[in-house]
Amino acid sequence: MAIRVVVADDQEIVRTGLTMILDAQPGIEVVGEAADGGRAVELARHLRPDVCLFDIRMPNVDGIEATRRLAGPAVADPLAVVVITTFDLDEYVYAALRAGARGFLLKDSGTALLTQAVHAAAEGDALIAPSITTRLLTAFVDAGPAAPPRQPVDALTDREEQVLVAVARGRTNGEIADELHISLSTVKSHIASLMAKLGVRNRVEIAIWAYETDRVRKGLGSPK
């Protein structure tokens, strides 16, 4: 079945362009469009798309608040939201991640990366290129966590520590499998276990926890 997407951007030419690009890709279908965040939230709640692609700067309700309403900590059944913007500003990144976004994409990223981001979001996989992930998450954590990092329900295994650091460095499931010489299904099993132990809901939250607990900067979990 096709990946169902809702696109929200207040600029009609941008919204139309994103829709045309996505509809032209095999296995992707834009099922709704909105010019402001309030309408985007209504559409998303009604249509339950696989992925929401939201601009940040929109009238009435902006993309950050729309993301919070659909994917924030208080949402029992969150949707996958990718924030897309022209502005590569750290304060937008912080706000998007705090609101529950799984990824952050620039509008000049190109068709290939846009398509990859939609597929990744639908699969719960990485959404940001490794170099950008490292910069954004490091800056995010340096700004200070909203609360002290939670401790895992059960201690992480050595392999889970390795997968944790790989996720924080922006690796995809396939790249983690190759790097650690394990199967793709094993990677997915470790990620599911990490989410359960850490009490988080997606890969971005796993990565944030790894940075907040200093595991990446200390090299914890790095393959020997």
UniProtKB/TrEMBL annotation:
Superkingdom to which the source organism belongs: Bacteria
Keywords recorded for this protein, A-Z: DNA-binding, Phosphoprotein, Transcription, Transcription regulation
Residue ranges occupied by any HTH luxR-type domain in the UniProt entry: 149-214
Domain Response regulatory: 4-122
Cited SUPFAM superfamilies: C-terminal effector domain of the bipartite response regulators, CheY-like
PROSITE patterns in the cross-refs: HTH_LUXR_1 (PS00622), HTH_LUXR_2 (PS50043), RESPONSE_REGULATORY (PS50110)
Modified residues (4-aspartylphosphate): 55
PANTHER family linked: TRANSCRIPTIONAL REGULATORY PROTEIN NARL-RELATED, TWO-COMPONENT RESPONSE REGULATOR
Identification of the protein by name: Response regulator transcription factor
